[in-house]
Amino acid sequence: MLPRPLKPQYFQILLALKGGELHGYAIQRAVLKQTDDQVRLWPAMLYRSLGKLEEAGLIAESTPPADEPDDERRVYYAITTEGLERLREEAEMLARWVSAAQDAEA
Amino acid sequence: MSTDGDLRRYRLLLRLFPAEFRERHGSEMEALFREMSAQRVEEYGRLGLRFWMSLLWDVGSEALRERWSSTTHTKEDLLSTFLSDVRYAFRQFARQPAYAATIVLLMTLGIAGNAAMFRVYNGLFLKPLPFDEPEQLVDLDETAPAWDLEFLSIAYRDFDTWRSENTTFEAMAVFDRGGGTILIDGEPQRVDYLATTHDIDDVLRIEPLLGRFYRPEEDHPDGPRGALLSEAFWDQSFGSDPDVVGRTVSLNGFVIEVLGILPPEARFYGDADLWFPLRQTRDQFNGWGLNGIGRLRPGVTIEQARADLMSVHKGMIDEFEVNEISSPVVYSLHERYLGDYRLGAVFTFAAVLSVLIIACANIAGLTLVRSLGRGQEVAVRRALGAPRGRIVRQLLTESAVLASLGAALGSVLGVWGSNALVAPLEGQFPSWVVFDLDARFTVFVVLVTVASASLFGLLPALRASRASATRSGGRVAGSISRRRSTGALVAGEVALALSLLVVGSLVMLDVRDLGRADPGFDAEGVSAFSLFLPGNEYEDRAALATFTAAYLPQIQSIPGVTGAAIASMMPVSGNHQGNFFIAEGAPERDEDAAQPVVLTRTVSPEYFEVMSTDLVAGRVFDGFDGREEGTQAIIVNQRFVDTHLTHLPNPVGARVTFGTSLGDAPTWLTVVGVAEDVKHYGVDEDVRPGVYLPLVQNPLRAFAVAFRTTGDPGPILSQARAITREVDAGLPLYNVTLMSEQLDESLFTRRATSWIIGVFSAIALVLSIAGIYGVISYSVRQRTREISLRMAMGARQEDVMRGILAHGMLVVAAGVGVGLLLSMTGANLVSGILVDTRAINPTVYVGVTVLLFAVAGLANYVPARRAALLSPSEALRSE
């Protein structure tokens, strides 16, 4: 069980995979895009995170799409049901925090 | 596209990860790297440093986490904290690059000196000798204070008795150094040899590379002649041919069998080309002249060994009365060969260490000043719940990162700088002294870095962390206590800089005086080489005399040579020959009175002119001196007159003879002249009573040929070689020296020491002045509001200035006071390496103090004036 709240990079990876199976470079680009270029996951951090998420059962390796040529075959990752559930919980928690902060501002 | 080289580099980087991790993710990460770099190149045209720095950080920090996380969770937390502290630190530096760069520069300066000096110190005193259990090895010698000889060297009969009767040594050996001519395929070559007793391999615990060592029965005057070759000589003269073992070579006309090849570590005393048996016996007394080395039994101390040898030695008094005067001495090898350099090395080290401390004080001052600006940031972080320890750690991490950067640069600079120092030093010491870098060096640099970082980081960190949210108003900083700590820092810097300047000036003055001192001869334009006439060809005195009589004029007539002479030894060559002399009519000598040994040289008449050694009285030798019975002559030096001829009104015409007491029919030598004292043992060494004998009276087998030239001695040397070859093809020229170079070399360590101390005391001065300037400017800036208020209320510019100056100069005065006390101690200690300069030299103390006050005053004046010129409104606006 990964401690709550999830580390930002874990959260971003889960979020990126919510849209479908991706390989490393695609995950990196997706995270860049969804954070307005704020979070770039460099290779070592990305793959260590993927390892941790996989060990925790939140993501799993999946078979690459059939149209990928054999010699460029990459490892694809997919989010698990457990991962989807955890992502939802985390997002709700963050939302509660943000709204609390906004209430305090007002 | 990224190149293969880039990928290879990245792959190398990935090795930081455990193998397991690389197996699982390695190829995917490489693929990702290829994709990222392709995109990067597309966008920017190349990968660039920033890209690599990011990759390095990414892989480095994640690999650390990966390796640590496999153990415990707390550790990973600690590591994460540390890594984020480091990142935070770098972000801080990016915000204030000038501050970070200054600190890195100061650290680089501080560490470079220390790294360089440690390398030298380590090589000289810390590295173990290249032998098995080297701590058991000791130097053996005899001392004879009554003859004014600290080291008499060993007589074989003494050694022989020590060896058989001692109870504290595992083994001991004596040896003699020498040189001769070896014939290899008919070609003469000058070689250096070491004649040792047969136990030397047991003492050093060495085995020959090939063949065998000599046996006890070969170490005897009648034994067969055999020798071992050094590895280097074997390689250079025989191309490392193993079949050379068993062959014979001709050395000084003797046929010698090659018994074996020495191991590389047998280059212990100089670099002798061959070792062979000493072949002496107890019954035949050849005087002293041997060096000794012993291996102590385990657990035996040097004192015990000395006491043991002493009782053996004094037990021989009945047989050899002279053993009453001589005593055995035992020293550690380091002490004997390098002990003279220890004080100089310690002082140089102290100088570079002081510079580092001053640099740290400066950094601490800077950091304190900066922590004012960070009061707010720290207060906010504490208000957000950061514990005090966490903030201290953050600030310490910043110090550590800067210190490490400076240390890395400083080590490189230090190693590079010390190369220049080490290269000439290596020739000055026994060949087992090496200055390569080792683990000890690394540990030292790391320790010094950690110590510096805590030195300059801890105080500001503790202080800054005390800032609390309630006081975050920003005007807390001018607190008295902070001003007090910066004041103490500045005073400390001034004190250190002052004492360093005093000690540095003393050492520099001393070396300058030594360089200017008259050594009793003029080395400029004089060159020398040596010749050795082997006994098989030049059998007796007549043959030797005939050779020199015919040879010297040929050298004198080489065009460009303005004079040439023959001498048994040259000044500053490290050679010594001593005898005792007694003067006719001298008062009966007290039995216990000291009798200094007399330096004895044999020279041809031209010697004094060639060397420009002046005669104080009388004349130089003429062609008749010593030629016939009753014309034996001698020239003495001034010191000899003062020690041996005080009973006579006029030394010229006095008669002296060899020995300590008058025999039945002494051979009298008439003093024909008195020469000025020559610093034979080096310009920094004392003069002994000395004499010169005429060459015809005492023909030489080995001698130096000294000649004076007006131009380049190079072509003249080749002509001398040609002439010599023509006279006798079997005589190589050796020990070719330029006297002026030799004289310079004899002062090299002193000059180097004084230059290092001098340069670093100058750096110390500059740093401490920068420290004063920085602190005063800062305090002025801080008090701007107060000053402008005072001025608005009518205070005059002079009053403001006086106030600021008074505060600054008070701090400087405190530093100077402490510094003067410190200098006296330092000067007292350094007096051990001073020759002519006295430790208490008022000019130096006054000069340095005035200099410090003057520059410190300027450093104070500039910011004070700036403050005084402020217009009140401007000052108020600045808040």
Summarize the structure.
The complex is a heterodimer of chains A (106) and B (879). In chain A, 57% of the residues lie in helices and 9% in strands.
Describe this protein's structure:
The complex is a heterodimer of chains A (106) and B (879). Chain A is mainly alpha-helical. Chain A has four helices and three strands. Chain A has helices at 8-18, 24-34, 43-55, 81-105, and strands at 22-23, 59-62, 76-79. The longest helix of chain A has 25 residues, at 81-105. Chain A is globular and about 55 Å long. Chain A starts with 7 loop residues before the first helix and ends with a helix. Chain B has 879 residues and is of the alpha+beta class. Chain B is built from 24 helices and 22 strands. In chain B, strands 13, 14, 15, 16, 17, 18, 19 and 20 form an eight-stranded mixed sheet that branches. In chain B, strands 2-3-8-5-7-6 form a six-stranded mixed beta barrel. In chain B, strands 12-21-11-22 form a four-stranded antiparallel sheet. In chain B, a hairpin with a 2-residue loop joins β6 and β7 (254-261). The model of chain B is unreliable at 469-478 (pLDDT under 50). Chains A and B meet through α2 and α3 of A and α2 and α3 of B.
Provide tags for this entry:
heterodimer, A: mainly alpha, 3 strands, B: alpha+beta, 6-stranded mixed barrel, 24 helices, 22 strands
List the helices and strands and how they pair.
The complex is a heterodimer of chains A (106) and B (879).
Chain A: H1 8-18, E1 22-23, H2 24-34, H3 43-55, E2 59-62, E3 76-79, H4 81-105
Antiparallel strand pairs in A: 1-3, 2-3
Helix pairs in contact in A: 1-2, 1-4
Chain B: H1 4-14, H2 19-44, H3 48-69, H4 73-95, H5 97-126, E1 137-143, H6 156-165, E2 169-184, E3 187-196, H7 200-204, E4 210-211, E5 226-229, H8 231-238, E6 248-251, E7 254-261, E8 274-277, E9 291-296, H9 302-314, E10 327-332, H10 333-373, H11 375-383, H12 388-426, H13 439-465, H14 480-516, E11 526-532, H15 541-556, E12 561-567, E13 578-579, E14 581-583, E15 598-603, H16 607-611, E16 615-618, E17 633-637, H17 638-644, E18 655-658, E19 669-675, E20 690-694, E21 702-709, H18 713-727, E22 734-738, H19 739-746, H20 748-782, H21 784-792, H22 797-830, H23 842-868, H24 872-877
